[in-house]
């Protein structure tokens, strides 16, 4: 008998090969990988590591990349299924190719699969390393501390873990669909060919109804409960005012304890007449701040009626300027914007705001967007109705302000540009969400050749867009009254996030990038949507002048809109110093 123990491919090599084959098959049976899905997943994973609007650390990037890779895996599985179902049966290979394929070594598929896995892994690691360089570029553009490179290789591991969890959930849903289809086939006698798609429809419809009904309602009920408790919190540095010019004071119609956390901070931290006088060098008045919380009255209409009654009580309609403010979700009002107007007009001002939700803006955007517009419209209409009863020469300058979701609520008060021009003396809207109706109309109808990030509308005669102070003067000095300003940074995800990013390239990614946006940022289907969505929670966690952080630009915008008298560069600088110190103090105390 021939000895084959040491022959190539003999008894020694065969067990090793068989062991390798069994090992790979065992891994495949455990993970059930789809290699087309793996390739597409890796492609989307790599795209997700390219620059977005804001810098991200490795952990946040891993979550985003994992979600994108999972979507890619699903698309790849769909492509593989379509190929096997419709294309492969119709493809006839040449005889020579079929003969070569039949004589291939049995380890060929294993080698191909191993090469695919290795190539995907190498590509993912190299892209994670390159991503760290892109993140450093973004932080340099924004004047921020660079993101550490050392953690970025961990993005691959975290992304893989996210993919694993999401695929496991998807397979659990698939098993549920099969169980429903089996039940339809066995108990209702639905043919198998019909039971499978019908089972999928039943599971999807049930999931949608469950989410939109029970789960969504339960989620927002719990969220409202949690944030209403937070609304009851009062900062140790929010002290009940004693001045009659403030809501919540002893003589106020809106009780202190009903104003909510943000409302109490707003009315208790206004600059005093003395502080304003020290900045301007002139006598000043105590500024009026009116606020009504959700608990101040029963319902929006009663709440806005109370706000107008408070304006009457404080003699707000006798001031030089009256600003109607639409708040963000929790009732927050930007202190820099409020103080800017008060300092520019020597305290001869009245500011009025109302709360419409307990939820932060991100959750309010999902559940309370209609409430924000209803409140914005109702508040302005009530104030305007009372303001209109005054003699024309005795009316205060009527200004409108809103930031972020507040701008959307504020826009809700107006039907269009003509309505704004007829009923206001000036408007400032800061960081408007992409879904704002009027903003979208102005941007889509911008003058030909002007970019989406800083458009020019109708030669800038009424409406202007700016990301920097010098852009407020574009395109010429001819600017009619009332003046309307939108502030929007090229790097603000609140402005640029939209569901349209899923499948269409926006104009702002076909034009030259903004000064604080990486030139390497590109649009990729599906991926860019998730990248910019992931930027939203961190929109304000960047340096001033970038993202959703407009503090240094707001005073210039208010000066352009409101045109305060005797406003000199020297006074502007003193106001800017005061605002910077005030913002730093608020950051420490609040």
What does this structure look like?
The protein has about 600 residues and is an alpha/beta fold. About 55% of the residues lie in helices and about 5% in strands. The chain is built from 20 helices and seven strands. It has a seven-stranded parallel sheet with strand order 1-3-2-4-5-7-6, with helices on both faces. β2, α11 and β3 form a beta-alpha-beta unit. α11 runs antiparallel to α20. The longest helix has about 40 residues. The N terminus is likely disordered.
Question: Would you kindly provide a brief summary of this structure?
Answer:
With 590 residues, the chain is an alpha/beta fold. It has 20 helices and seven strands.
Total helices: the number is 20
Question: Which residues sit in consecutive blocks of at least 5 with pLDDT less than 50?
Answer: 1-11
Elements, N to C (H/E): HHHHHHHHHEHEHEHHEHHEHEEHHHH
Largest sheet: 7 strands, parallel
Overall pLDDT level:
90
Query: What is Rg?
Result: 31 Å
Strand order of the largest sheet: 1-3-2-4-5-7-6
Structural class: alpha/beta
- State the end-to-end distance: 90 Å
The count of β-strands is 7
Measured by DSSP, the beta-strand proportion falls in 5-15%
Helical content (DSSP H or I, runs of 4+):
40-55%
């Amino acid at each position: 008998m021939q000895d084959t123990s040491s022959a190539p491919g003999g008894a020694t090599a065969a067990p090793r090969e068989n062991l390798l084959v069994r090992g790979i098959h065992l891994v495949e049976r455990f993970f059930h990988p789809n290699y087309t899905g793996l390739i597409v997943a890796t492609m989307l994973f790599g795209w997700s590591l390219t620059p977005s609007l804001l810098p991200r650390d490795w952990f946040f990037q891993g979550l985003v990349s994992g979600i994108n890779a999972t979507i890619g895996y699903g698309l790849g599985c769909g492509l593989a299924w379509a190929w096997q179902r419709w294309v492969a049966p119709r493809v006839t290979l040449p005889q020579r190719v079929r003969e070569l394929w039949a004589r291939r070594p049995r380890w060929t598929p294993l080698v191909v699969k191993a090469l695919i896995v290795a190539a995907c892994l190498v590509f993912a690691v190299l892209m994670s390393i390159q991503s760290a360089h892109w993140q450093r570029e973004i932080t340099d553009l924004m004047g921020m501390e660079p993101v550490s490179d050392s953690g970025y290789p961990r993005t691959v591991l975290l992304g893989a873990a996210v993919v694993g969890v999401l695929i496991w959930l998807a397979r659990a849903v698939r098993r549920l669909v099969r169980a429903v289809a089996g039940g339809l086939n066995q108990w209702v006698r639905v043919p198998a060919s019909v039971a499978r798609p019908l089972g999928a429809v039943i599971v999807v419809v049930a999931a949608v109804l469950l989410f939109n009904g029970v789960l969504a309602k339960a989620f927002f009920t719990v969220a409202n409960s949690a944030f209403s408790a937070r609304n009851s919190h009062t900062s140790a540095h929010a002290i009940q005012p004693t001045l009659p010019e403030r809501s919540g004071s002893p003589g106020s119609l809106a009780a202190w304890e009903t104003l909510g956390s943000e409302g109490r901070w707003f009315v208790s931290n206004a600059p005093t007449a003395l502080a304003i006088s020290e900045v301007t060098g002139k006598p000043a008045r105590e500024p009026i701040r009116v606020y009504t919380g959700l608990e101040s009255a029963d319902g929006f209409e009663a709440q806005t009626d109370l706000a107008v009654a408070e304006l009457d009580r404080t003699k707000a309609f006798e001031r030089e300027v009256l600003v109607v403010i639409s708040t963000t979700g929790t009732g927050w009002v930007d202190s820099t914007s409020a103080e800017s107007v008060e300092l520019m007009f020597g305290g001869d001002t009245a500011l009025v705001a109302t709360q419409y939700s307990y939820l932060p803006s991100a959750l309010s955007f999902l559940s309370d967007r209609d409430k924000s517009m209803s409140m914005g419209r109702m508040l302005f209409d009530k104030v305007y109705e009372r303001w209109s009863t005054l003699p024309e020469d005795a009316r205060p300058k009527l200004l409108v302000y809103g930031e972020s979701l507040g701008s959307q609520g504020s826009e809700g008060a107006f039907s269009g540009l003509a309505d704004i021009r007829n009923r206001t003396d000036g408007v400032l809207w800061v960081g408007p969400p992409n879904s704002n109706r009027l903003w979208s109309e102005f941007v889509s109808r911008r003058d030909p050749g002007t970019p989406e990030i800083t458009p020019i509308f109708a030669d800038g005669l009424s409406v202007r867009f700016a990301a920097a102070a010098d852009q407020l003067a574009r395109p010429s000095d001819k600017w009619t009254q009332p003046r309307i300003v939108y502030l929007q940074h090229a790097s603000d995800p609140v402005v640029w996030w939209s569901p349209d990013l899923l499948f269409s390239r926006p104009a702002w990614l076909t034009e030259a990038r903004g000064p604080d946006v990486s030139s390497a940022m590109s649009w990729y289907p599906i991926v860019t949507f998730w990248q910019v969505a992931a930027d939203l929670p961190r929109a304000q966690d960047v340096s001033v002048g970038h993202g959703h952080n407009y503090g240094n630009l707001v005073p210039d915008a208010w000066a352009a809109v409101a045109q305060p008298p005797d406003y000199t560069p020297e006074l502007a600088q003193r106001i800017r110093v005061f605002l910077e110190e005030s913002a730093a103090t608020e950051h420490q105390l609040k």
